[in-house]
């Protein structure tokens, strides 16, 4: 065993303390509302299953309930109300450090039966009831438990069917063979910018999430055929919900780890007011160590972030929320002015990178009556991403080689009206108005001209409009239909798309369900692509300004079966037809924006590309039962694209197959202590690369790709195993958790791709992230 691992293991097990014989208790409380109108449901029954004596309570006139004196542990809770379908909340964690606060929404039973057979649990359904296919909910507990997920939704999602991580060093994910850039991030019902540190221009991921798990509530992840309310995305949607802070008691969480130190606080604004605050701040541990003088290698990496949610009731039927996040991150490297220390051409480069982003929103929710619920939100968001680097010449003088600075900001207004027409019919309609501002610049060294060449230089503003309407029809006790339309228009060039969406779900019996989904989806190009500059006869042209939206037809067919109350099997097959995809014109060109993973393409493009993704997925999932959970996800898929050469090629992300096994077991060790072991193992086909032309690379002194052989090389098979061990101890007024995550515990050298090394005149292999141990300690009180 390596010395580092021995040390970490020793630190971990030093957290084991003496047994406490005291029985610890906590309060469980919350609110029960109608799923559509959010109208409170007084008199709802809340019962803890399999408890002796029986624990439970009833909601009051405002839908609130309180159950004091609940022994710490994990429970299943049934919530029921006359005329509504029961819900069973599984794996409700009750710890001594914080009160457990639940938000429960019930669906009306249009048959008006007194008792409804309940199969499955809250894990079987998404938060958004209009998702018919390719969607699942995920909880904060999953982001915490999954090995090497480190409270990051993007890294956690790599355990799900159809999802492939494209780089161990960040949380970019490819969904069903699509580019990571096809992903949409949404928070509290409104679109937000990429919420990740160390994000490159044009990407939807980054090094680590800005959003703290301390703020997240149960949220949805969708991988195809989205309902009509989601637009401007081709591959997937993270629809994040924020929890409200405790409005009766002040509570705190402190977490210190190798990634960062978090401090979270929540509580009421005043004793007689039902409003609450929830705020989290994190500062990079590496930054702190660097300031103390600890040597951390060539790169100096810094980040910090702040996220918050303020809940402000302003009447019996009206609430106001102020929420947001902000993150600052940068990375700097300085080349040594000593050629004896250079092992490769990379050592001659100095670089400076920054990635800053944030958003602040104000949401007003108003219960018009028992049938109508209106939500309006105003969000201001922005990001600033940039990088510059230079190369030391033989005289140790720095020569500028690359510069980019992309500033984008947006003001978004949205209004969504939920209407319960009857127990059978629910209508949701809304509009999104976006005012976009941009200030983007990029220039790079041109080897042929021997000087820096400007590629993008633009400043201005534009607008986009989105509108949708969707109808949920519960045609019978077994058949549910979701149908709608979405409209998207970019006013920069008036490109637009009207998109029909349809979802069908039919319960064959109490254990089986089949589903089908169709949707036409479109997406605006990365904004910098529209402003690529080209010089012709002394005139500056913008050849990409009139680019159309990229589009895709999604078709999904699924089958769900509950093998028992805690074990579920799911099969889905899908086909996606992508069209109007920007490509380089010409029968000898192989570039398509489908393969773009970061930065902006600055060459002239045309919307004549095609793509297709198809495959089948299998999921076998055991929700936690007897302290054991597991998730087996298997995917077989094909991802192809076509340019004007009229030939189908593999995309960058066509690994063909992916298999992921995620599992965890908790052991109740002594009194009030829980030892957890979690595992994730991934095996999949390697991503694809374009070969390097060695002779031309030597001649030019830089990498030259064999563009005519686009993505014809495939990396070796990818394999990685992560583990997580944790020890949680409940004390009378606190809960403490010591954890150790190890990513890539076998230290396997998975291949990322190849690069040309000018100093040696050879092609070398670039590898993904080696073994990374992440130690953390969290206390809640």
From TrEMBL:
Keywords: Cell outer membrane, Membrane, Signal, Transmembrane, Transmembrane beta strand, Transport. InterPro entries: Beta-barrel_TonB_sf, CarboxyPept-like_regulatory, Plug_dom_sf, TonB-dep_rcpt-like. The keyword Disulfide bond does not apply. It holds the Pfam family CarboxypepD_reg. It is a multi-pass membrane protein. Its main location: membrane. It is found in: Cell outer membrane. This is Carboxypeptidase regulatory-like domain-containing protein. Coiled coil: none annotated. Residues 1-21 form the signal peptide.
